[in-house]
Prior knowledge:
The protein is mainly beta. The protein has strands at about 1-5, 20, 30, 35-40, 40-50, 55-60, 65, 70, 75-80, 90, 95, 110-115, 120-130, 145, 150-155, 160-165, 175-185, 190-195, 205-210, 215-220, 225-230, 235, 240-245, 260-265, 275, 285-290, 295-300, 305-310, 315-325, 330-335. It is built from no helices and 30 strands. β5 and β6 (about 55-60) form a beta hairpin. The chain is elongated and about 95 Å long.
Amino acid sequence: PSASLSYTNHSTPSSDGWNLLGNPYPFDMYWTTSGVSASNLDNYYYVYNPATGNFVASNFSGSSINGGDQKIAQGQGFFVHATGSSPSLTLHRDNLITSGAKFYKTQPAILSIHGQNSEGWKDEAKVMFSDEFSSSVNGQHDAYKLSGSHLDVATECEGSQLAINALPELNASNKRIIPMHLKNIDGAAMKISFSGLSSFDAETRVFVENIQTGELVDLSLNPAYKISLEAGQSSDDYRLIFTTPLGGQSKITTSLLTNLALYPNPVSGSRSTVTLTGLDESYPFQAQVLDVMGRVISSEQFTAQTMAQIALPQTAGVYIVKITQQGAQRQVRVVRQ
């Protein structure tokens, strides 16, 4: 077939005349004088390689840069450079090949979640990010989770449990919070581990949060972190948090609240407060007291300080003190006797 090309002339040869095309055949093709007929075009084709951040290029005789060659993969997009008016390009069938060309495209960032029990049974789930994915469950990219016989590992999107959760690419304006569903069916202990952090941009932060205890683990700092489940235990307490830098700072500061302590616990007698220590004196914070159903009983804003007194209800029961500081959160259970 012949390609429809154009030529713009602004007296800047390096900027004028660029055309984006694609290999129209369901086969790979050779970029040679016998496979291509061209006029008013340079001899090179150019393809962007997202793995290196550079363009590969090759001409009709095989001269190339950055690992390029004369093979163009089926469906591959590529640039050509027109040098004058009425450029033309015809791609012939004579030099089609069935394989061997590298397809250059952006690969999704993938976090794999691995489950394995002490008897050797395994399961896994994946969370993937790419600009070709959508935020809704889509059978083209997402895979539902079907329960197994020994253990289950899944994440959640729109209320559905998924084995593969494909989501739009992360950027500086969003933060993804993804619930995990973990189920240990067998009578053997189970460990959950994570891999694939190297597929993410170096500035992307991936956290595992325990919403019951408030523990927040940065996987980039602790890639060997594991979740343990006892025999027969299921847990919906964990969630993944994916963030990218915003305004030069991460949305979650893991050094905050790591030294938080609360005492006395349990609380008895006429005492009406508990003492919080280990706060970062550089930032203000919010303290909330919740009941076991997660309903907010009280909420108070505090100025930056290292220690604070938190008021508790006088009614006996179990309460949750939730502290939020600079995006980091920590929850501590308190017993009122």
